[in-house]
């Protein structure tokens, strides 16, 4: 195997690992809300993968809407908990970012911030 082929394989592995982390973060964020309200659908990493596959095919609008709704639902559950004023403000920003998300990368950014803002609910 040539050096170029090895580098290509390493790059693909790194990308796959990054996508796995994003999917795991989404699942962790939604699980935090799920612990407070079992009436919502149980979170899955597959939700993120479904979005990324749809983006690759060029038709991700439906999956994006579904995932944004799930994230909004989770944020609403957090609002029902006892929160500091600062955390409430952060969650409002998160709701706004979620509403403006247009891709899986935007969703990943919302989730990263959401994990930070909801760390008290681990």
Q: Please, what is the average pLDDT? A: 89
Low-confidence stretches at least 5 residues in length (pLDDT < 50)?
none
How many domains comprise the coordinates?
1
Write down the secondary-structure element order: HHHHH
Shape: globular
How far the N terminus sits from the C terminus, by CA atoms, comes to: 45 Å
- Sheet having the most strands: none
Number of strands: 0
So how many helices? 5
Structural class: mainly alpha
CA radius of gyration is 16 Å
Strand content: under 5%
| Amount of helix | over 70%
SSE layout:
Elements (H helix, E strand, L loop, with lengths): L2 H34 L9 H12 L3 H19 L5 H16 L3 H14 L5
Helix pairs in contact: 1-2, 1-3, 1-5, 2-3, 3-4, 4-5
Plain-language structure description:
The protein is mainly alpha-helical and about 120 residues long. It has one domain. The chain is about 80% helix and about 0% strand. It contains 5 helices and no strands. Helix 1 packs across helix 2 and helix 1 packs across helix 3. The protein is globular and about 40 Å long. The termini are far apart. The relative contact order is 0.14. The model has no long low-confidence stretch (mean pLDDT about 90).
């Amino acid at each position: 195997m040539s050096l170029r082929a090895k580098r290509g394989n390493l790059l693909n592995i790194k990308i796959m690992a990054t996508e796995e982390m994003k999917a795991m973060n989404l699942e962790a964020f939604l699980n935090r809300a799920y612990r407070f309200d079992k009436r919502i659908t149980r979170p899955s990493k597959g939700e993120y993968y479904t979005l990324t596959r749809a983006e690759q095919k060029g038709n991700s609008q439906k999956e994006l809407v579904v995932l944004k709704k799930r994230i909004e639902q989770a944020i609403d559950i957090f609002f029902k908990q006892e929160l500091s004023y600062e955390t409430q403000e952060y969650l409002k920003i998160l709701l706004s970012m979620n509403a403006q998300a247009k891709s899986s990368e935007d969703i990943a950014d919302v989730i990263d911030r959401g994990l930070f803002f909801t760390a008290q609910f681990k």
